[in-house]
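I would love for you to help me understand the pair of lines that follows before we discuss the fold together.
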Amino acid sequence: MPIASSTSTANTAAGRAEELTLLEVLRRATGYLASHGASSARLDAELLLAHALGLRRLDLYLQFERTLTEPELAAYRALIARRGGGEPVAYLVGHKEFMKLDFEVTPEVLVPNPDTEVLVLRAIAWARERAGPLRVADVGTGSGCIAAALAHYVPELEIWASDDDLGALTVARRNLATHGLASRVTVVQGDLLEPLPADLALICANLPYLAEDSQLPPEVVAQPRHALIAADAGTALVRRLLREAPSHLSAGALVLLEVDPGIATAVVDELGSYASHRFHRDLQGQVRVLEAATGGQEQGVLRPPPAPRGELGGGR
């Protein structure tokens, strides 16, 4: 990688190792990442340098002429090499912003995706239109970013967050605790809807929806495969949730599912039990969220939930 090191950089005429300013290091790192296929090379380079130096990204712009020491360069060089190898920036720095909230991210969970904010924004708008308490589920919660964002922006919601992966739920619990939401979100382990109560007014889910033969960029391949890939050309879990959800929903309830544009029309035949449906597009104009509504006017009438199975504590 073309960032100075004690073994690879020629000495200056004065006999000292080449000194590199912060701006020059950013320029070289950006070029390296761009040559390795990074779609946001400059942003990645800045985020990783800020992390290596313990600075805010904004602070970099105030220190462009700063000369970096060899230990600083070594730390940055290692991060850039890993990013060039395909590791997501979020895994390298350990966190990612989602819905203006900061979330811990580890290789146990998917990196929160800006396109998923389309689902969350629709859920928030729908919930705010309803009066009274609503029982909401985030199925396949992963890092907990959907559940946490809903709890943060709609405080009156009763939220359940489920996942079948204990490692992911451990990360989710830490994120909920960080945002002061652990007492407001019940975290349970289990298969899809199995650990969840009935009378749900809203189900949100970002389930695996990619086909096994999908051609994916390295930063996606680096994420947990079981959270990305589903059988039956990516439709298996989405179809199953649509089939099973009506028995867990109250009258007038809603299901919001993130989907790949390639499977959107393929899952419509599972919507016979719903009164209506529509799709929402993501930031690139692609179909990304399936919204399916049950019939009836009643919204979120709550009955006492059963004792949660597989609850990890820190909930209700």
Notes: DSSP finds ten helices and nine strands in the chain. Strands lie at 95-98, 101-104, 135-139, 158-163, 185-189, 200-205, 249-258, 276-281, 287-293.
